[in-house]
Design goal:
Length: 258
């Protein structure tokens, strides 16, 4: 994967600010702003998951140096995250700390904050309401970030039953996506040495062998919920089949893994 980065440099007082053009690395885009003697600010946009995790890891680690070990990551445009993607931020934070620096997250969306809580990573990653607050050190509690999710859930419950969507897609497209995933079951097992996904894969295979599309949809959603909580070793086959399946349950065109 090649990063095409074009930089423009501006002098501000005695500081030099370097602002690269946005770097498109597939499902996620980077915009980096650095200032001499200040933190490196990284704005991520897109999906932080198994697909994008290798590129995110490589890019973030490339930014860390003994004289540039403080990172602030603007998460406001990250629309989806899973355990594999967030684990990259934890490993980057460890490298920053070894260099005497820090890593701070800013402007988490409620759905991303929820994943951080479910995975337990909220105990390891410092979150702030805005980039400015992260620079100043005014911390955000995950409970505050999740408030938006709770309000949205309450609004959904208030709608009449006929206004609420059915749980997931049905039909040939879903079964084709599940067939492709099950055809790569060996790749899923290789990417999951602890076998945390084995029960969900068995249930999905059993549902796919039956005649109920609803059962297939529910089993697929259960597998994807495990993917949110548990990281996998990166595999192109797993990334592709998981992305295809998640795309059927989401308005976004892609899924991710890390």
């Amino acid at each position: 994967m090649t990063l095409d980065v074009r930089r423009t440099t501006h002098l501000i007082g005695e500081s030099t600010v370097t602002q690269p053009a946005a770097e498109d690395t597939g499902p996620i885009t980077f915009t980096v702003v650095t200032e001499r003697d200040g933190p490196v600010i990284v704005a991520l946009a897109g999906e932080l998951d198994m697909v994008s995790a290798p590129a995110v890891r490589e890019r973030l680690l490339s930014l860390l140096r003994p004289d540039a070990s403080r990172l602030v990551i603007d998460m406001s445009a990250v629309t989806y995250a899973d355990a594999s993607g967030l684990a990259v931020l934890v490993s980057t934070q460890r490298r920053a700390v070894l260099l005497g620096g820090t890593l701070r997250l800013a402007a988490l969306r409620p759905e991303v904050a929820k994943v951080m809580t479910v995975t337990g990573l909220s105990r390891h990653l410092a979150a702030y309401p805005t980039v400015q607050a992260a620079l100043a050190g005014r911390k955000l509690t995950i409970r505050t970030a999740l408030r938006g999710t709770s309000q949205a859930a309450a609004a959904a419950q208030a709608r009449p039953p006929q206004a609420q969507a059915e749980p997931g897609p049905y039909g040939g497209e879903l079964r084709a996506a599940v067939s492709a995933l099950l055809a790569n079951a060996d790749a899923w097992r290789d990417a999951d040495p602890c076998r945390r996904f084995s029960p969900a894969l068995r249930v999905l295979a059993q549902a796919h062998a039956g005649t109920s599309d609803r059962a297939v949809a529910q089993a697929a959603q259960s597998l994807l919920s495990v993917l949110v909580r548990e990281p996998l070793i990166y595999s192109p086959a797993v990334a592709a089949t998981a992305s295809r399946l998640r795309g059927l349950f989401s308005p976004r065109p892609q899924l991710a893994m890390g």
